[in-house]
Automatic annotation (TrEMBL):
Keywords assigned: Hydrolase
Ranges for domain Calcineurin-like phosphoesterase: 36-289
Coiled coil: none
Transmembrane regions: none
Protein name: Metallophosphoesterase family protein
Organism: Lacticaseibacillus baoqingensis
A Pfam family hit: Metallophos
Biological classification of the source: Bacteria, Bacillati, Bacillota, Bacilli, Lactobacillales
Superkingdom field: Bacteria
Length: 363
């Protein structure tokens, strides 16, 4: 087990997570890649019984405690760590608290950038969009800390990260890859409303896929590239991202055109003719649901949000309303252990709280 700093978690959560750990521990081995994953904690200072609050940070600590009880290789957060709805100094404080928790012991971590993590939700309420983070904030607080880990992931200029575990390569994308220009004191894009990957990040992805060699590849991100009906899930380059994964599976080579948009367009080169691996799945959060679907042979697996979604709140998804989530009960949170068995080519998702207990997929 890993070294664990002194963490006190809530009694009901400890009882629930002890039972969860006991149930799944026999199914995890050191031969599998095991990751503790949460997404969309939407942490903020003010507590609400029907919506987000400081329990987002508590969920991170509870994930930390759980990871110490199981043979976990990586801790993962798939974005929207904070709600981004408070003054910048408060949101930055909450963000630092979460990052400090991930840095607190020897379990390596990887974090995907979420569309709420730049505090644009707060800035939307201000005439001059005041309170939105400059790009250096996320870079310094998150990406720099990820890259500095001993044995941690490689982190590219656009926030794509890569690590290998045996016959598996894990690539985490930045689906809020939005070039920032300040025009008359305002940002050119509202990042909360603009899910995107640039052509430059897609080139980084193509290079990381090519370097995977014989490895199969698991993709993770905050937002999925595609929807169940086969429509782009991103405002910019969702289809291009999906197509790049398709041609990787085909072991093809060529050029991908991302259009002429000055911020997101361009062409990229790819050559997967020497690769023998496949895309295992694309695992994401953002939609506040659980769902599994396949588009053109690419399996998309969506994870439920950890943040409390009160059943009376207008923004609560139908999926979460069915859970009738309540604070100080296991339904308050949702989290997962993802276990990849490369020898038997199985992806397993074990869920706790407002999550399906077990989902198993062949790849």
């Amino acid at each position: 087990m890993h070294r664990l700093r002194n963490i006190t978690i809530r009694r009901f959560a400890k009882r629930d997570l002890e039972a969860f750990a006991q149930a799944i521990r026999p199914q995890l081995t050191t031969a599998t890649l095991n990751m503790a994953i949460i997404t969309d904690t939407h942490d903020r200072t003010k507590l609400s019984r029907t919506f987000y609050g400081p329990n987002g940070y508590w969920h991170v600590q509870e994930q930390h405690w759980l990871a110490s009880e199981l043979p976990i290789d990586w801790r993962v957060h798939l974005g929207d760590m904070v709600d981004g709805s408070e003054p910048a100094v408060l949101t930055m404080w909450r963000l630092r608290n979460i990052i400090n928790d991930y840095q607190a012991d020897d379990i390596p971590f990887v974090i995907a950038r979420g569309n709420h993590d730049d505090n644009d939700k707060y800035a939307e309420r201000n005439r001059r969009f005041a309170g939105s983070f400059h790009p250096w904030v996320y870079h310094d607080l998150v990406w720099e800390k990820m890259a500095a880990q001993v044995g941690g992931p490689q982190v590219t200029r656009h926030g794509l990260s890569v690590f290998d575990h045996g016959h598996v390569r894990v690539i985490t994308l930045n689906t809020s890859d939005v070039p920032v220009h300040w025009i008359g004191g305002r940002k050119n894009y509202d990042i909360k409303k603009t899910l995107a990957v640039t052509a430059d990040q897609l080139q980084e992805l193509a290079d990381a896929l090519q370097a995977a060699g014989e490895r199969d590849v698991l993709i993770m991100a905050h937002a999925p590239a595609m929807t169940r009906p086969g429509k782009p899930g991103l405002r910019f380059n969702g289809q291009a991202l999906h197509d790049l994964l398709r041609v990787f599976n085909l072991h093809a080579s060529g050029t991908l055109d991302c259009g002429t948009n000055p911020d997101f367009g361009g062409q990229l080169q790819f050559d997967f003719s020497g690769n023998t691996g496949k895309i295992i799945a694309y695992v994401a959060g953002h939609w506040h649901v659980e769902e599994d679907f396949t588009v053109n042979g690419i399996h998309y697996s969506l994870l439920n949000n950890s943040a409390l979604m009160g059943w009376q709140h207008g923004l609560t998804t139908r999926y979460n309303r069915r859970w009738r989530r309540r604070i100080s009960t296991p339904s308050e949170y949702a989290g997962y252990v993802l276990s990849l068995d490369a020898a038997n080519r199985r992806l397993r998702l074990f869920g706790y709280g407002a999550a399906t207990p077990k989902r198993v997929f062949a790849y």
